[in-house]
Amino acid sequence: MPSALSATPAVLTVELDPEQIMRRRPPEALSRDNAEVLAAPIADDLRRIVGEDIAESGFVMPAALYDLTELLRPGLPMVEALLDVYRGSLRGGPFIPQLLALGSNAGRFPESAIAPLRRPGSGPLLAIPFALVAPGEQLDPLRRKLENVLLEKGRAGLATDRAVRQLMGVDPVNLSYATFHDLSALMKVQLEHAQFGDLWRLIEAALYRPDSIEDCQLESGNRFLGTGGDVWTPWQSLDAWAAHHEASAEEAIRGYGDWVRQQRQYLSGLESHGIAVHAVAPSKGVASADPEVALSVAQAHVIDPQQPWYREIITEDPTAERAAIVTLTEQADPQLGPIAYTALVQAADGELLSLVHDYPVMPAGMQAVIGHWQARAEALGAQWRLERPGHIVAAGHPAALQPWLETRGNA
Fold first, then answer.
1. How far apart are CA 254 and CA 242, in angstroms?
2. How many domains does the chain have?
3. What does the alpha-carbon distance between residue 243 and residue 237 come to, in Å, rounded to a whole number?
4. Are strands 276-280 and 230-234 parallel, antiparallel or unpaired?
5. Which residue from 185, 259, 257, 255 is spatially nearest to 224, judged by alpha carbons?
6. Which end of the chain is more exposed for a tag (fewer CB within 10 A), N or C?
């Protein structure tokens, strides 16, 4: 009885001049007819590089350019989708080696789950993915051969170069073949060179070790706990950072700025690979040296994504019936932009009723915080002020965020 169909993925890497791609989106996916025109020389290249026995396997390829982050995702969904497409083409019949090229029709990609994202700034190394498909026992030796020879001998032929240039409208600096493992090795080198080795550890674990617990703690104080293809990260406020480091206002603004910068860079990097990141409210136990304990606590204290900010309460009157003025101070770093919002609720005589700091845990949280407090002021029948001093307002030793009291009335 033949074994179930299996797939082994690889790519044609398309290296472009950064000036050519970084200012615009990758080109649109090819039409169905042009997809077949491109697939033919790629299949010829593979027979030349790997050997004629490759013709005994099936070949399926989406005719589009993808950023590497679109391919290296937990569970490798691109591979599963291509295998599903190939299975579907057999209509329940026996395995038949055939070439399937997926192209767009009237601007729509046939498989929306793997449609190219074409994000601005993608590249300069893009890729055309494909998969070889065959029954498991037939594919295993071919998979090993790909791993051994594809990167070493995998320069694309002239016909492929010509097809890519003419059909996709790009001028490649280099065209070569690689396996997904080769792509992983390349990304590891790139991230480590850019001093993001811990980021690669989290991505690699999500891709290849989903059952493990990956614990990354940065010198800046950030912590990321990964398992099952997701990552949990405890949030930290400027006040907490300053208290931990016994820092003055100047030291806290600089040091906490480093923490925020790292946090945003890691969140952006993880999310670009389709890795879900869960912000965690500070709580006892999340700082445990035992990763299993820290992860368990973190999973129990995830910040509700429907309210995408972490709230640090200094003092709060839950009713605030005497509220007359609600002032929101945007705490902004000149390079990082807003990092927090300080809400000050006062009575008509100036008495302090509430003082809280709201930290957006994702970009959408910035407008969400502003909208929340503006609505709160309206519900209380209070005057509404939004202050944007253009810097972080902090004082004391250890430092603490402060509201901006030099009213400018720029709500």
1. 10
2. 3
3. 10
4. parallel
5. 259
6. N
Short-list 408, 411, 341, 354, CA closest to 380: 354
Distances (CA, A) of 194 to 205, 296, 327, 379: 19, 31, 41, 48
289 and 357 inside one domain = no
Owning domain of residue 389: 309-401
47: closest CA among 168, 153, 194?
A: 153
Q: Is residue 104 part of a domain?
A: yes
Q: Which two tokens stand for residue 207?
A: 């891709």
Q: Residue 408: which pLDDT band, with cuts at 50, 70 and 90?
A: low
Distance in angstroms (rounded) separating the CA atoms of residues 391 and 221: 22
Identify the three-state secondary structure at position 98.
coil
Whether 283 is in a domain gets the answer yes
Q: Give strand pairing partners of 309.
A: 360
My answer on whether 261 and 349 are in the same domain is no
Asked whether residue 315 falls in the same domain as residue 372, the answer is yes
pTM > 0.70: yes
Residues 285 and 345 grouped into a single domain:
no
**First-to-final CA distance of the chain:** 73
